Amino acid sequence: MMDHAIALTEVQYLNLNFLLTIQACLKSDRAAAAYKFHLDRTCAARLASMSVSQLQVLAANMPHESLFKPVGNLAELLDAPPGLAMTLCTVGARPPVRPPGERAASQAAA
């Protein structure tokens, strides 16, 4: 019997599981995990170096606030046919990338 079990809110549970998942992915393949979870180098290094206990404390101190926000086009994903979800998620997840020549021209004009 677990007499000392900690009761987590749904949000705390989600935050902890997400942090642990990201950390496991970072330890397996840091570059792929950073891309997959949209992490910059600093966040990736920090998360990879944290102990499970530190991740638990972080999650425990966030009882009502998710550390991870839904993608910006979640409403479109919910309404889309399942086969289009991945494409819509990819398109909506990052700002559009402009070709190098177009970037240079817009920077010169600014």
Explain this structure.
- This protein is 63% helix and 0% strand.
- It is mostly helical and 110 residues long.
- It folds into two domains: 7-64, Orthogonal Bundle (Flagellar transcriptional activator fold), CATH 1.10.4000.10; 70-95, no CATH class.
- Helix 1 packs antiparallel against helix 2.
Rounded radius of gyration (Å): 19 Å
| Structure annotation, total helices | 7
- The CATH topology of the largest domain corresponds to Flagellar transcriptional activator fold
- Give the number of domains: 2
CATH class of the largest domain: Mainly Alpha
Mean pLDDT comes to 84
The biggest beta sheet reads: none
- Fourth CATH level, the homologous superfamily of the largest domain: Flagellar transcriptional activator FlhD
Number of strands: 0
InterPro entries: Flagellar_FlhD (IPR023559), FlhD_sf (IPR036194)
Keywords: Activator, Bacterial flagellum biogenesis, Cytoplasm, Disulfide bond, DNA-binding, Transcription, Transcription regulation
GO molecular function, one term: DNA binding
Pfam families: FlhD
Q: Which secondary structure elements does this structure contain, and how are they paired or packed?
A:
Layout: H1 10-28, H2 30-36, H3 41-49, H4 52-60, H5 74-79, H6 85-93, H7 100-109
Question: What is this structure, in a nutshell?
Answer:
Keywords: Activator, Bacterial flagellum biogenesis, Cytoplasm, Disulfide bond, DNA-binding, Transcription, Transcription regulation. The chain has 110 residues and is an all-alpha fold. Helix content is 63%, strand content 0%.
